[in-house]
Amino acid sequence: xxxxxxxxxxxxxxxxxxxxxxxxxxxxxxxxxxxxxxxxxxxxxxxxxxxxxxxxxxxxxxxxxxxxxxxxxxxxxxxxxxxxxxxxxxxxxxxxxxxxxxxxxxxxxxxxxxxxxxxxxxxxxxxxxxxxxxxxxxxxxxxxxxxxxxxxxxxxxxxxxxxxxxxxxxxxxxxxxxxxxxxxxxxxxxxxxxxxxxxxxxxxxxxxxxxxxxxxxxxxxxxxxxxxxxxxxxxxxxxxxxxxxxxxxxxxxxxxxxxxxxxxxxxxxxxxxxxxxxxxxxxxxxxxxxxxxxxxxxx
Length: 299
Hints:
single chain; mainly alpha; DNA polymerase, domain 1; 3-stranded antiparallel beta sheet; 12 helices; 5 strands; globular
């Protein structure tokens, strides 16, 4: 099975243009399934290896049932997606049976995204407003850009200076999720912060160079951005587990609260389905009910 998994991973990367992250996750998930089958020491194993052709729907169900004891539904869904994709590949390549074809994923747990209110966002941006240190100017520009555009953190770190048009106030997100480019508006405060950071960059900036770098001029990683956001939250005295992705939630919810329509928010966020964007209506309704309770004399 290992050789087939590796062949599948190579085909996934080449034919489907899947990201390296997706390929790595699918490979890991499939090897986890293989190890589960090996541990059961069933008739599937021959000479210490799993015979993929002998895997049945019951084997997959048993694996998922075991996962459900400790893993989240999202993890179980991802593992099943990997298994389904693998057996579709085998079906096409070897005219083999597909034991996972009729299996359904568990329903997703709908969790409302955690967000900050607008006052907390302001505190987060202004936490070191008096500092002119390059790192402070960069971090302020980073927060402003995340909140102003609603970019995913992977899209943020992938930005080059050529992607920002400060004349008309737009950011071009190149090959975002789903390998699709999109254009997103960006506000004046964020543009001003970006210009200030560009002047303060310790290494000369280039049009094709990264927007957000460390102090040695190397492009920031998503992990670095997570650390920056966490540190600023701490300094601002804001409690709660808000991640860089949480600022994307803030962007969408605050836009909705101020009258933006769902279709426009969907376009700016780069969601393929409006249903994904609609979860923000739950947060917005909660906000409206809170305002109603506070303001209506007979609430």
